[in-house]
Design brief:
The chain has 16 helices and 2 strands. It is an all-alpha fold and about 350 residues long. The mean pLDDT is about 95.
Length: about 350
């Protein structure tokens, strides 16, 4: 399957899984299905790129998995579980970040808070919205686990794939913890930022989806190692690109207000290098501005200008491109189906281009 066809097939499998979820909850309580599950399903069906599930399918194909038949269908179901896991992560992440928008629309907790106000219900709308969003995220995670458990039965690498799935979820949680902890402590060092990028983003966005797919197919150790090395490098590049777009991108392109990570004081490589370079250059104004990031009244626009002035933006752009290039280099160690190699090359180049 070419990339467009893969996306369409994954959409179809995801739609089927979501329809089953809505139906199962409706049998228990029609109001819960309508108010909680239908909006979750619409969010999951929305404008996401199916990036993680596509990468998992490429991992399956790279590992020798078949493109047709009941095993391919089972692999596709497992791949779509990554979309629901991603929904869980986004919904809970938006709560932690107090983000009001996601993909150009109100975030899950904001939408439920608005519905509470519009209906004139009792209690605090904000608290109600957060509570509903937590339930929606939990349900997405539970359904993702169910999909994987059911899909792996009978696949050649089921045991290995279960281990990958467990590791993926643990790394997500540890990465999120490190993100929150570093933010609370006002961390400004590059090592901490890169460790967060590695666990919170690179693992569950690129490395582990490829690993999951390859493991399901029973791929050789060399194939798994090359795909994981690619995923680790390109996954970090993907996060660095996202950090740059948060600070310097246009909201109409990102779907979120500009500078949210700076406003929240996220421990990014961009901020760490900006602080280090400002101090090294003796730019006291930039040091003071960047040290204030994360505190109430953070001067986001001024912080972005300081990051560019001291050379942090250029540094991270170069690191981003270098990681993408090294990721592509790992693929030279293995033979890949042409469509998979082309897709992975294209993905890496996009990740390395802020």
């Amino acid at each position: 399957m070419h990339r467009g066809e893969t996306r369409e097939t994954l959409d179809r499998f995801l739609g089927r899984a979501l329809d089953e979820l809505v139906s199962a909850v409706r049998d228990l309580d029609a109001d819960c299905a309508a108010e909680l599950v239908v909006p979750l399903a619409e969010f999951a069906r929305g404008s996401g790129r199916r990036m993680r599930s596509v990468l998992a399918w490429w991992g399956w194909t790279a590992g020798g998995g078949t493109g047709e038949g009941h095993r391919a269908d089972a692999a596709l179901r497992a791949c779509t579980a990554l979309e629901l896991l991603h929904c869980f992560a986004l919904i809970h992440d938006d709560i932690m970040d107090r983000a009001g928008h996601r993909r150009g629309a109100p975030s899950c907790h904001a939408a439920h808070a608005r519905a509470h106000r519009d209906r004139g219900l009792l209690g605090d709308p904000g608290r109600h919205g957060v509570s509903m969003a937590i339930l929606a995220g939990d349900l997405a995670l539970v359904r993702a686990d169910d999909l994987v458990a059911d899909a792996l039965e009978g696949l050649p690498g089921a045991r290995e794939a279960r281990g990958v799935w467990r590791q993926l979820r643990s790394e997500m949680v540890v990465g999120q913890y490190l993100d929150l902890s570093a933010q609370a402590q006002g961390a400004r060092d590059a090592g901490t930022a890169l460790r967060i990028d590695r666990l919170k983003t690179a693992s569950y966005t690129v490395e582990r989806p490829l690993h999951l797919g390859a493991a399901m197919a029973g791929a050789p150790e060399g194939t798994v190692a090359a795909l994981r090395s690619y995923g680790a490098d390109v996954g970090v590049a993907f996060q660095l690109r996202d950090d740059l777009r948060d600070a310097f991108g246009a909201p109409e392109a990102t779907g979120r207000p500009n500078g949210e990570d700076l406003r929240e004081g996220k421990a990014t490589l961009l901020l760490a290098m900006g602080t280090e370079l400002a101090d090294r250059r003796g730019d006291r104004r930039a040091v003071e501005t960047l040290r204030a990031v994360g505190h109430e009244g953070t001067p986001v626009a001024e912080a972005a200008r300081a990051l560019e002035r001291v050379g942090a933006r250029e540094h991270v752009e170069h690191r981003c491109a270098a990681l993408a290039g090294s990721g592509i280099g790992h693929l030279d160690r293995i033979d890949l189906p042409p469509a998979v190699r082309e897709g992975l090359d294209e993905f890496a180049r996009a990740a390395g281009t802020p």
